């Protein structure tokens, strides 16, 4: 029996499917966690070290994220084993083969995630016609291009800063992971007057107390280079990004980057989680005890899936951005008000809110389990 079932509870998972095609090297996993609110939406994550257990945790995060955002969708996630920087032709074979193997699982709608993008979703649509985050040419809202998740993070920051008496103008922030999420979060925050003083990618990290030109960093990444090639910046080992003093720290990379072993190194006033499950629960408790406000992932980074859901309903970019702003601001305030009122962690407040919505949706189903 799959080890992902150690995460099983009264909410899910509904289905766990392992896909293996020896001839092409295809190995992947799909976890459909809960579909009480509707068919699940969740991205396809591609990485060389991704696991079924990680997939299950991410699928549950999507259940809560979609419920918290008030979407008519449940939670699911899929993972593909492989280097996302492999030759395009090889990657296309794997993505097309993976979605074809899952053609009949209509409870899951494919979306982009770490290691996949709009082009990959175009391949999925061509094969099974069940994808979001599509290129504009296919009628989609390219959420990475417009920076949907980063846009949502900027609104979450703007609400959360009120709860730690922080003025966004002149606030110093750090982004761990300058990819599709991190770069747009940096772009929107710097546009509001905040100053990017530290940034990292998979190669390394840089810092500058005087701040970086965010557009220059984005251009550097667009040229296929690392942030460490930014001229005149102080280079650091990637892990040293944790130590940079700042007002706002945004993890926007892999899971569990902050844990009990390094959480005490964070020197910030506000953490807003751009990545999925980037901080362990034990580390979140430590942050709370230290008086550092920490906004959990499925509240802060819901902009992407909100955009995807709006696209799936046939609406356009303007409607998506309006929905992201409204839902992110409302949910951030609701969670932080509940956390203050009940003297609990923001994550516990968020989980209580999302779980209540999922359980209420389940109560309307003929079969109450899923």
Structure in words:
By secondary structure, the chain is α/β, with parallel strands linked by helices. The chain folds into two domains: 3-63 and 74-140, Rossmann fold, CATH 3.40.50.10860; 148-303 and 330-353, Rossmann fold (3-Layer(aba) Sandwich), CATH 3.40.50.720. The chain has twelve helices and twelve strands. Strands 9-8-7-6-10-11-12 form a seven-stranded mixed beta sheet. A five-stranded mixed beta sheet has the order 1-2-4-3-5. Strand 11 (270-272), helix 8 (281-289) and strand 12 (293-295) form a beta-alpha-beta unit. The mean pLDDT is 94.
Features:
single chain; 370 residues; alpha/beta; Rossmann fold; 2 domains; seven-stranded mixed β-sheet; five-stranded mixed β-sheet; 12 helices; 17% strand
Structure in a nutshell:
With 370 residues, this protein is of the alpha/beta class.
Helix content: 25-40%
From the N-terminal CA to the C-terminal CA, the straight-line distance is 20 Å
CATH superfamily of the largest domain: NAD(P)-binding Rossmann-like Domain
Number of strands: 12
Order of helices and strands: EEEHEHEHHHEHEEHEEEHEHHHH
Q: Please compute the radius of gyration using only Cα atoms.
A: 19 Å
The main pleated sheet reads as: 7 strands, mixed
CATH class of the largest domain: Alpha Beta
- Mean pLDDT level: 94
- What percentage of the residues does DSSP assign to strands (E)? 15-25%
Number of domains: 2
Say what the CATH topology of the largest domain is. Answer: Rossmann fold
